[in-house]
Amino acid sequence: MSTQLRTDCEGFHRRDFLTVGSAGMLGLALPQILAAEAKAAGGADGESGRKVKAKGVILLWLAGGPATIDMWDNKPDAPEGIRGEFKSIPTNTDGMQLAETFPKMAQVGDKVSIVRSIYHTIPSHGPAAVFMTTGNKPTAALQYPALGSIAAKMLKTEVGVPPYATFGDLRNGSVGAAGYLGTGYNPFVIEGNGAGGKGSGFSVRGLTLKGTFTLEELEKRDALLRKFDGGFAGLDRSNDLVDGLDTFHQQALEILKSDKTRKALDLTTEKQPTRELYGNTPFGQGALAARRLIEAGVRFATVSFGGWDTHGQTFTAHKTRLAPTVDTVLAALIKDLDEKGLLDSTIVMCAGEFGRTPKINKNAGRDHWARSMAAVMAGGSFKRGYVHGSTDASGMAPNLDPCTPDDLASTIFHQLGIEPNTELQTPTGRPVQLFREGKVIEKLIV
Known about the structure:
The chain is α/β, with parallel strands linked by helices. It has helices spanning 29-41, 103-106, 125-134, 147-154, 215-227, 241-257, 260-265, 272-278, 282-296, 314-339, 405-415; strands spanning 56-62, 88-90, 97-99, 112-118, 164-167, 188-192, 202-204, 300-305, 346-351, 355-356, 368-369, 373-378, 386-388, 390-391, 398-400, 423-425, 431-433. The protein is globular.
């Protein structure tokens, strides 16, 4: 009896085949799938010998292009038609001001760096998101891996937890995907809604033991599989494929057998005041779950919050939904990590694909603008209470310490112990520099 393997334009998806208990699962199908992933991935690298300043990353992704001119780089003294509706408020750090819609972030200004001089040249959502989330300008010749996929490839991860997790499937086109690293380094997708009522919660897509299938039965089936070599008869043993197969097979089993991930995603065990600190929203509870995953050993977690494509009524959207949610969640995450002693070892990044036009349009909105944008960084030995760079008086372009998405990515991985000029290989053996144009932003780090 043959097993039909479902594929799409990205090839096999690990998450589609880790549900155990259905007919044929963890039989001949799983080794074939994992073998394909291992072949695509080409093995795993370790960390550099340099002292590592950070162990994990949480990316709060503001999908749609946030108007950072109305957030982290407010221009209250600019001419009418540019300055917007929001006044600036001081933070608890001298010289750092934010828009008045971020009062909670103002209280943790001493724990963050605000990078106000990011720029690039891609005002289109998809390609810009690829640039920001991979650290490489998109090209038709090669699909670059997401930062989380690079972390999964190059950083050792504790047994029983996924190296790279996303809350919701972020792989719209190529965003968030493993690119040339192969599908073995795609994210584990976390599904559910931690802000819901009874029966709500988070789980890893495809990582379940369905029905009455038990861990004991899983162990027995795996032992039988290892004795029965028929499923491996067609594999090419002239390379590292079998070693890769064993690695991925073991990873699948360990995640299923371990309760580390399940416990991390069970927010009912979290103290109620902490849950309330993050706010009862999917974004807030997702960020809390991401903190718990990082605490359990996950290397990279991405939580997305959309709705930032504000071509019309941008100030209303900011006041009523966007800014209050980010203010609550980002401030809570930074405060929570710091109180738990995890901020020094965890990098937090809050950003979107580009900024928005300094000039307000006729619909009281702002349009796409990649020539200037800002991001919030915290933890991982990034400086605290620091503003990096600036834009001109109208927020049109950087006028001090300009930096690009690949510079930011290079700095993040430098703090993780991996240099931007590190070379990886495509499945065809082509050497590719990690961030081909990125440079470490030395002023951002301690």
